[in-house]
Amino acid sequence: MRGATHARWAAGAVAVGLVATACGGGSGSGGSGADGIVSSSWGDPQNPLEPANTNEVQGGKVLDMLFRGLKRYDPKTGEAQDMLAEKIDTTDSTNFTVTVKDGWTFSNGEKVTAKSFVDAWNYGANLKNNQKNAYFFGYIEGYEQVHPAQGRPTAETLSGLKVVDDKTFTVKLSQKFSTWPDTLGYAAFAPLPSAFFDDHAAWLSKPVGNGPYAVESYAKGSKISMRKWDDYPGSDKAQNGGVDLNVYTDNNTAYTDLTAGNLDLVDDVPASQLKNVQADLGDRYINTPAGILQTIAFPFYDKAWNTPDAAKVRTGLSMAINRQQITDTIFHKTRTPAKDWTSPVLGADGGFDDTLCGDACEYNAAEAKKLITEGGGIPGGRLQLSYNADSGSHKEWVDAVCNSINNALGNDTACVGNPVGTFADFRNQIGQHKMPGPFRAGWQMDYPLIQNFLQPLYYTNASSNDGLWTNAEFDKLVDEANAETDTAKAVETFKKAEEVVRDQMAAIPLWYQNGSAGYSERISNVSLNPFSVPVYEEIKVN
């Protein structure tokens, strides 16, 4: 997806901070109600709860309960499985025929048809609708006409989308993408009822979907009440009576409400409580891998960081970071030292490889100093590692990373943290390519494919290639992988592309992030999916 604006990076990048701090401030509405209602902490969503306009975890929680798409990611394995898709056929990895299952309706009784998907995708892609997730439709032919990089749209709908009949529509992509069907579990691809278009304002105040829950009430900034939809036709019916998501602006308050018995579920245990959570909750504390990777990115638009020898400097810096020590002492086992540029949740078959980074991700002070010296030293003599200061979680680890680098180089001022006032300011500087040096970055997967960890971040002019790295060999391998119809071969080709990222150290992988949650004695069967979101429909009220 060339040249699109990828706001998902923002959500993933601040998963340590935003997700941990956006939840907080209110007070819970008590524990489970008489009708088996689960009360859970929530962060106020940044955007309206439209499928193509929600690109962060908090809004995503609601969409995951409210909608079902063509595919759904298995809450345990992350595998893309058919949901409303009866079948998705292709002979060339460019032209796809989608057949929608019969018998599905929205909770207002309207039938889900092929048109429900096509209308929703056209709406999401059109520049005039200003949808945050528009770039997800960037692979479909005609995207440049409905969502041009500059100027106004010259078309209203995507030329690559055609409704054949109630159950069938066709999709033509602008490039080969063999695993494209596996992206369709992402919320942006959800269907929409005609009510969305007929009275948009009314729909936003009380969204209507086709998932296991229906919205009973929604008070922006306070609470959304979801109730079990009894006529839901899917196999993953809600095992409880509903879920009340209560907005908190301080996750410490949410945790206090949980331990006091006033809240059933907290899915972002605050860092300050990690040392106590085992004693407080015992086996009701969940700490499990999620599809989130934290990194250090580089400003390749700064020539000093983009010299032929600078790869040695970047690799040396990677080897100067004692990941194990930092994750042990600061993150209390909720982070795991990174061994590649993907995530363990992909599994070996999906492309995760804990040997890929190798020595370049292992702490070795002597080799780090040697490589940095051979590469001409740190540009300007000092590394300024930028981060947003409005999240309390970043300063501690940035200081620890700099201390590790300084110790390895025997220079107390080789690396310093560079706090930027707010996340908005931080992202603006990144977007305007004004970073004075390396900057903290991160990625929360949109869908569990190795492609999603590589192409949006490192492909030339890709949607989240904020450092403007470019490498012809990497681009060539990504194109080959996307065109490969054999999934196993595609994964191996993506890994070859990832090796280019490693050899050039396009970004320094720091650690994989876990999802953490705690729950009350009133509920059971609680788990987090690979996106670190509770599987609400499986929760049972005791």
How would you describe this protein?
- By secondary structure, this protein is of the alpha+beta class.
- Helices cover about 30% and strands about 20% of the residues.
- It is built from 18 helices and 19 strands.
- Strands 11, 12, 13, 16 and 17 form a five-stranded antiparallel sheet that branches. Strands 1-10-9-8 form a four-stranded mixed sheet, with helices on one face.
- Strand 2 and strand 3 form a beta hairpin.
Concise summary:
By secondary structure, the chain is an alpha+beta fold. It has 18 helices and 19 strands.
Uncertain runs: 1-33
In what range is the share of β-strand residues?
A: 15-25%
Structural class: alpha+beta
What's the main sheet like? 5 strands, antiparallel
**For the terminal residues, how far apart are their CA atoms?**
46 Å
Radius of gyration: 23 Å
Secondary structure: number of strands: 19
What global shape is seen?
globular
Average pLDDT value? 91
Share of helix among residues?
Answer: 25-40%
Total helix count?
18
